[in-house]
Amino acid sequence: MSTDTLTVRAEIEQEIAGLTLPVALARTVAAEGDRPAYSDKVGIDLSAGYAPGWRTVGWTELREQALDVAGALMAAGVAAGDRVALMAANRIEHVVADLGAVHAAGVSMSVYNTLSPDQVAYVAGHAEPAVVVLESADHLARWERALAESSAIRTVVLIDAEAPAGDDRFVGWTDFVAAGAAWRAEHAAELDARTAGISPDDPLTILYTSGTTGNPKGVVLTHHAVLYECACSLRVAAPTQHNDFISYLPFAHIAERTLGMYIPQVNGAHIHLIADPALLLGALGEVHPTRFFGVPRVWEKIKTGISAKLAAEPDAEKRAQVEGALAIGLEYVEALQSGGEVSPELAARFQAADAGLLSFLRALLGLDRCEWAASAAAPMPLEVARFFAGLGMRIYDVYGMTETCAAVTACGPDQFRLGTVGKALPGIEIALAEDGEILARGPVASQGYYKQEDATAALIDADGWVHTGDIGELDEDGFLKVVDRKKEMIITSSGKNIAPSNIENYLKESPIVGHALVFGEGRPYVVAVLTLDAEIAPLVGAQLGIPAGTSLAELAQHPALLAVAQQAVDAANERLSRPEQVKAWELLPVEWTAESEELTPTLKLKRRVVHAKYADVLERLYA
Q: Higher confidence at residue 357 or residue 484?
């Protein structure tokens, strides 16, 4: 470890010495007072789509509600270290319930809303929560088997759902919070003592990974690890204004939990909670956030929408003006990469392009105030990053995993390079194993997997290195590039090692391609299955003369769309070595979603699911 890494680690450790999340939150509440903390759309009529208006809670009120919930949990018999499971959309009650569990010295567990009843039963049987908080009738149905089988679950709190008859474990949210307030009035000292007794090394949360390969594993994260992550992330992000943020990914995902819960509760912010990601674009237009995080698929969708509109512009002169401005924006952002300088001439050209067009385009997207835009969870296609650079935006790619409290490397204002996930965060060590696997070490490391010692031993070695399972490359300046998941690397029958995500990203540069999966393990060549983008493909189809209302399945078989897909494959192959080139492909008549199980809740491919569901298609491609 370098002296610089040791020094900065010691500085951060001093900053957070003795801190727990309740102490950090109390400081934020004292500083923020009644400023808005969280807003959501509960109570707003969204039946016709996005509508303006918010329900808002301030910082002081948020903490008071959380303490009432903590009182209710203690009254229900929750002991220090007991698990409290939450299944709810991104709404104020989710945050309040989470903080209530934390202040009662419990361990909060947000569970993905899309888990099947069998998966929920596995998580509940493994974690044995004492209390479960559920939002809707759908969530209650997903927990029905778990509730029937579990002897550990003593109380089930329902936010909106109706309680089934004959089970005295159920209580409504309003009654639960009111009971907690009454309990607090008589036992305030007992609650204060419980909260004060929390140690920085106590578990703060257990997050069950999305289970792309087998049953989910429960990742244990401590108060200290999370607070270190917050501190070092803020150093790199270097915010210069009060944060307005949109939270729309599940709180069961570590990135959203860190950005939408932990960092705001440490540093203050106004978080706008979106229950349905389909409402994201409307929220961007209303909130105009100062910070925005999107998984690559979100950035791809925004890019595709803009690109389609530009391609549909009939005025060639206007198209040329936009393309010229985007070229200047890209040149400017590329010059800002680590070690680069912007010439006065380029700065002047960019200022003119920005004032004339680029700032207008960013405003249309709701990103005109955004000083920090980031991506993670999967490799960001370089062409997508370059497109937003053309708008004058730097998308700061970050890299990490649940097992490291989110990021261990990041790009930021002072450490940015396109095509990389940045440098190690302050006080964090990054190295590559002999086979190229990315290793990380530092205070953000998980304690391991809950009740899974063998899996923990495989994750963290004797020297404290977390084995990420990703293959990477480090350049001479310390910038990290992620190649692919170690387990997802393809080895063809001729022994060639191929990274499928790189090929898939090239294929998805076509506006009509929604998702792509590349296959070739043990085979003589690479093949691909593609899906159409449900929003863009019909627009492209209309431009090609295909009647409006043509179904996605029909579009996938239409010769004009098949020709466009062939162009996408050809364009990708031109950029690939011969062993990487796609020799056969098929356009599927379906969408892939988290509900149809081909994608995780954060829109990453579940390769094994696709391999199993479309085994006949893959075999046909080798016929």
A: 357
Which residues contact residue 598 at a Cβ distance below 8 angstroms, ignoring those fewer than 6 apart?
515, 592, 605, 606, 609, 610, 613
How far apart are the C-alpha atoms of 23 and 210, rounded to whole Å? 30
CA-closest candidate to residue 377, choices 501, 264, 197: 501
Percentages of the chain per state (helix, strand, coil), in multiples of 5: 45, 20, 35
Residue 52 has pLDDT above 60, yes or no: yes
Sheet arrangement for strand 429-432: 429-432, 437-441, 466-474, 480-485
Q: What angle do CA 423, 428, 431 make, to 5 degrees?
A: 70
- Check: CB of residue 12 under 8 Å from CB of residue 231: yes
Query: At 68, phi and psi to the nearest 5?
Result: -65, -45
- Residue-wise pLDDT for 409-438, tens only, equals 999 998 999 989 999 999 999 999 999 999
Token pair 């009971």 is found at 179
Is residue 95 helix, strand or coil? helix
Residues 153, 131 contacting (CB under 8 angstroms): yes
Indicate the SS3 state at residue 248. Answer: coil
Q: Cα(92)–Cα(98) distance, rounded to whole angstroms?
A: 10
Is residue 216 within 8 A of residue 119, CB to CB? The reply is: yes
Q: How far apart are CA 469 and CA 491, in angstroms?
A: 16
Look at strands 480-485 and 466-474 and give their pairing. antiparallel
Q: Over the stretch 506-522, which tens digit does the pLDDT of each residue have? A: 999 898 999 999 999 88
Please measure the distance between the N-terminal and C-terminal CA atoms of the chain and give it in whole angstroms. Answer: 53
What are the backbone angles phi and psi of residue 326, rounded to the nearest 5°? -65, -35
Copy the structure tokens of residue 133.
Answer: 């908080």
Q: Find out whether 378 and 253 touch, Cβ atoms under 8 Å.
A: no
Helix (H) / strand (E) element for 361: namely: helix 359-365
To which H or E segment does residue 441 belong?
strand 437-441
Give the residue-averaged pLDDT of 586-592. Answer: 93
User: If you compute the radius of gyration of the chain from its CA atoms, what whole number of angstroms results?
Assistant: 25
% of the chain at pLDDT higher than 90: 76
In 3D space, the residue among 51, 45, 36 whose CA is nearest the CA of residue 283 turns out to be: 51
pLDDT surpasses 60 at 31? yes
Residue 1: pLDDT over 70: no
Amino acid at 530: L
Helices (H), 258-315: 263-267, 280-287, 296-312
- 74-88, 90-104, 414-428: lowest mean pLDDT where? 414-428
Structure tokens at 71: 């009182």
Asked whether the beta carbons of 87 and 159 are under 8 A apart, the reply is no
373 within 8 A of 476, measured Cβ to Cβ: no
* Distance (Å, whole) CA 66 – CA 99: 5
**Cα–Cα distance between 202 and 451 in angstroms, integer?**
16
SS (H, E, C) 369-426: CCCEEEECCCCCCHHHHHHHHHCCCCEEEEEEEHHHCEEEEECECCECCCCCCCEECC
Asked if 444 contacts 12 with a C-beta cutoff of 8 angstroms, the reply is no
CB atoms within 10 A of CB 5: 17
Does the CA dihedral 330-336-338-339 come out positive or negative?
Answer: positive
pLDDT of residue 606: 87
Q: How many CA atoms lie within 13 A of 189 on its CB side?
A: 0
Q: Is 170 helix (H, G, I), strand (E, B) or coil?
A: strand
